[in-house]
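Summary for the steering committee. The consortium agreed at its last meeting that each partner would contribute one worked example illustrating the joint modelling workflow. Our contribution is presented below. We chose a case with several input lines so that the handling of multiple components could be demonstrated. No manual editing was applied between input and output; the record is shown as generated.
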Amino acid sequence: MKPRHKLFASLALISFAPAAGALAPPVRVADDEPAEEEREATEIEDYYFAVTGGDIYASGGEVLRGATLLAKNGKITHIGYDVEIPGVDYFQDMPEEDRNFLTETLDATGLRVYPGLVAISSSSLMGSSGDIADTANPFGQNLVLALASGITSTGSSRNVVKLKRYVEHDPPRDFDFSSILLGENTYSSLSWSGRSPSGKASLREKLSDAAEYQRAFRKWEKDVKKDKELKEPSKKGVDSSALAILKGEVRARFGADDRDDLLGIARLAQEFGFRPVIEGCREGWTVAAELGRAGASAIITPRTRRDKSENLVRPGGSSIENAAILHAAGIPIVIKTQSGGVNMGGIVGRDIIHLPVEAGFAVRGGLPEAAALDGITIEPARMLGIGHRVGSLAVGKDCDLIVTDGDVLHYQTFVQYAVVDGELAYDKEQELYYAHIRPRAQGEVAPQEKLDAGENLDDSDDDGEGDDGEGDDGDDEEDDDGEGDDEEGDDGEGDDGEGDDGEGDEGEEGGD
Amino acid sequence: MISNTLLPVLGLLAGASPAARADILAIKVGRAETISHGTIEHAVILVEDGRIVMIGEDLPVDRGIEVLDRDPEWTAMPGLVNCYSRVGLDSKGGNDSRPLQMASREVYPASKAYQEVLEAGVTTLGLYPPGNGIPGQCVVVRPVGATAEEMIIGDGAYLKVLARSSASSKKMVRGGFEKADEHAEKERKAREKWEKAKEKWEKDKKKKKDDDEEKGDEKKTFDPYAPPEPDDQAAAFQALRDGELSALISIIDSASYLHFLDAIGEEEFAWDLRVPVTRELNLFHLAGKIGATGRRIVMEPTISLHPNTMRQRNLPAEFAEAGAKLVLIPRSDSISSHEKWLRDTGEIVALGLPREVALRALTQEPADLLGVGESLGSLDADKAANIVFLNGDPLEPDTRIKAVMLDGSFISEEVPQ
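What follows is the complete predicted structure of the assembly.
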């Protein structure tokens, strides 16, 4: 909590400077610890949360540099410039005890503000599944790690949940378990595989029965107006989930990688008029046009591999360009990590906390950056049926956002803050996990010029050296953690090394 | 100062009833930890009829009163109170809600364990019923007696409730209060019905009088109102609401506490917390929130680790500082845990828990939790003479218990008299 006070304090002082000489002395708001009784004098009705000075990646791919985002009671009310923040830009003279609102301000100068990431599926981030409102653990390590990787919402077995962490407030607020549940997963998992011809036949039969019923129902709807005695067609023998798919109530979800299966699904979808979601889709790039025409969506894991079948002449196997080609064919891309949990063993970097890295890998294969960002924000949100609440930064949507020190798709970038429902839920410097790696420059000693975060961070560090001198040097020397030192070394090399690495790797991929 | 004010009273007492003198015992020790009013040096404790009559610094003792002059190094403190225990009990419980099940039914006086914990300084035990869910109510016993009746000094001390992060656990708590609501509604209706019937009966009676009809078998009075019998759930949860019963909520982590709060909603009743101090207990997240309630929290004197680190955390000290009323219990129900109880407590005192809080957490606070705080838990006049004598500071690691007094009589003493 303390640093937040500090942030608020420093910001408040800056904005008060021109207003000095007003009735109340500016020190009042900047007070680190307002007296308890005074706070309780007026009941707090509105909670404001403002992020100032950051580059805001708003919905529609717009980037507002150095803009302000203001949220009231967890919903975004303003994004843009000249946004007035209550308690800072107006009502600042009102004594704290008379205020019926509380304003929290986060200075994101030099940082980027993205919507909170959405993981299409995950496991064990909010505790065990089932009735999430009665089982959620808002304190878990996995939850914090997920927030640290930028994820603020996720599909979790049948539920769609918001990663709400318990945040201590002064004055205290109740923790609302019901706000965790965003919705229920509206999927019907279907199977369509060349290995099971009977399965394919039975699915086709179910769908055609349902279609038959729908036709009969529509006819009855029309005819019953003339003849009231007409009986409604019987639903007997009609598969309810097939009917729901045709009605558009749920989306059909297939797990398929094989070219033939993908084509089969595309044709089935076109025949019966539904839009399939295809998970895997590793050979999708070979039939992208067909999938696009069928209105399919794809959930892909760009780093998974699949060898081409040696028996076939046609193109096949996985491709680093898969996401890019599918996207070019108009297929909405949702990016998913190989593992839905937080894994501490095995091959590192393929679990849920590496979701942005996974998306970055698709960019390497040619997917536009905006599409990759959409693939971990708004697209999965839409697919989970929560696109109206999360997945992008727009007025009216939930204030779920992350503040990063660089491009979210860059491997070097860290999430500095995560905000859920207008509450600061994660602060890198306050947690055990990443605080020691490239510590954030403190507001007081940081260079004032704006950083174009990420790549240029090194330069700023160098510049900062002059200002804070001792502090930074001390840190480096004291850092007995080998990892930290390595990181610093990498930074030193900077952009050149990065470029080389990238090309080299790509060459290898091509070879595959 | 105390001795000055008490002097005349003592003389009066001793003079007024010389015959009782023989029953009075004066014990002189180097110091006494009274819990209620600090430490008394050169303390004299007067015990009569199993109760402490008087305690003070250097009280002059009348002739004729038996004096036990102990080593000046000796320290006296109130008998330890273990309010959360299954010592001597071995039944198994279910996983449902049985709020009226009493642990008093399974007290087994012949168990050797009682004598052993008594020798470890424990003079009062709160024994809880077994099982998960809502297993029932706790019984307060003194660890001595030939029959259960002799041992039991209080029943229904608290209702044990296991609060977990699960739908079933939350439903059990919510369901209990719903049952109480249902019963209240049922009773209201029954009363209405009875009142209507009574009204009608009175009218009829009047009418009959007017008609001057006489009938021999006519009832003179209407049956009094008999409220419907509440079921176990309704009875217990209504008792909680009415303040006749308090609950001890067993939680295991921060999440289970929040879920418990979610389950009770606006419901107000007396409850305290029990949390086993596990290796990486994450309850520190809520220290402020729980501390602000000022409720009791029952913990073991154990140092835990900040999750995923080797950083030590003294959670009992953190909660005491946050404002919670700390209650300490032995680390387990084994005899050796009872024997190490004071030493374990000394460990967390050495690591930051205030000494007076720790001593209180072993005596008065658990006694209050068990509802017997008026009659024991501190060295004060009119309280039970449950006293532990040690050869030094109770919380120092090399201190040993030298004697234990329960209700005025020595149970064990290393040095024969």
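The two ends of chain B are 31 Å apart (CA to CA). Chain B has two domains: 1-79+377-417, 80-172+230-376.
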